Amino acid sequence: MDPPSSPFHLPTSLEPCRIDALPPAAYYIADFISEEEEEAILHKVETAPKARWRQLTHRRLQTWPSDLVKDTLLDSRPLPDWLETPIVSRILSLPVADGEPNMFADSPHGRPNHVLVNEYPPNTGIMPHKDGSAYYPVVCTVSLGSSLCLNLYKSKEDGALDPEPVWRILQEPRSLLITTADLYSEYLHGIEPISADVDISEQTIANWSLLRSSVFRDGLNQRQTRTSLTYRDVLKVSKLGNKLGSRFGRS
Ligand SMILES: O=C(O)CCC(=O)C(=O)O
Ligand SMILES: [Fe+2]
């Protein structure tokens, strides 16, 4: 059993972690992994083979077990142990509500089979987007290293993006954020490329009451490098998976 000082008095269900200010549905658990686990995962991310990294203009990322090709996962090998334990087992241990199954009970593979590792130094973000049709519509994001705000946007009547976010979710290091349903399909999400999140307060942060820390001096969150692990179930997995995966030299 976890010792009393451990953060792993995980809730018995996601229900108390629901972000009430948002449409269905999002959940936030501030202490999802320990500082030791955070450090160990960051070490694995940093020491992954160089070829694992894909450099975009501002951001770099890793995909595990591999990239998608035409929305299909070609490499059906399991996730490496450092991405699997303890995160996947904890996600699967959490019922949506008492007596109900977990978030992935109805997904094609019953669990996340794909992880994107994104690294955001200060002044780095990700454009507002939707995650599309490749995935079962449940997204589990574990944040490491630093806090930042994820913005939620909606499209205007004419389909254009309303550049003003409708909500902001503050993601602390070691937290888990789960988004699903309308938040997956109807709204866009993005991260502003700024050095500090400003105007942080009970009035402006949707998950304020679920945060570990309410100390943001002058309403400011000075960013450091934040790394995120995005867990999803890719709907289509190629039957040729292992063969192709190894031909592409993924290890
Ligand atoms: O890093 C994040 O929290 C967001 C990543 C994201 O939106 C994505 O991978 O689709
Ligand atoms: Fe996304």
Poorly predicted ranges:
1-6
User: Using only CA atoms, what is the Rg?
Assistant: 18 Å
Please tell me the total number of domains.
1
Q: Structural class of the helices, strands and pairings? A: alpha+beta
Distance between the termini: 34 Å
What is the general shape?
globular
Question: What name goes with the CATH superfamily?
Answer: Alpha-ketoglutarate-dependent dioxygenase AlkB-like
Report the average pLDDT across residues: 92
> What is the CATH top level name?
Mainly Beta
Share of β-strand residues: 25-35%
Please list the strands of the largest sheet in the order they lie side by side.
1-11-8-15-6-3-2
| CATH fold node name | Jelly Rolls
- Named CATH architecture: Sandwich
* Order of helix and strand elements from N to C terminus: EHEEEEHHEEEEEEHEEEEEH
Task: Work out the helicity level.
Answer: 10-25%
Pfam family, one: 2OG-FeII_Oxy_2
GO cellular component, one term: nucleus
Subcellular location: Nucleus
InterPro entries: AlkB-like, AlkB-like_sf, ALKBH6, Oxoglu/Fe-dep_dioxygenase_dom
3D architecture notes:
- With 251 residues, this protein is an alpha+beta fold.
- The protein has one domain (33-247): Jelly Rolls, CATH 2.60.120.590.
- The protein has 5 helices and 16 strands.
- Strands 1-11-8-15-6-3-2 form a 7-stranded antiparallel β-sheet. Strands 7-12-9-10 form a 4-stranded antiparallel β-sheet. A 3-stranded mixed β-sheet has the order 4-5-16, with no helix packed on it.
- A hairpin with a 2-residue loop joins strand 4 (68-69) and strand 5.
- The longest helix is centred in the N-terminal third of the chain and has 12 residues, at 35-46.
- The chain is globular and about 50 Å long.
- The two termini are 34 Å apart.
- The site of 2-oxoglutaric acid (AKG) has 9 residues, from strand 6 and strand 15.
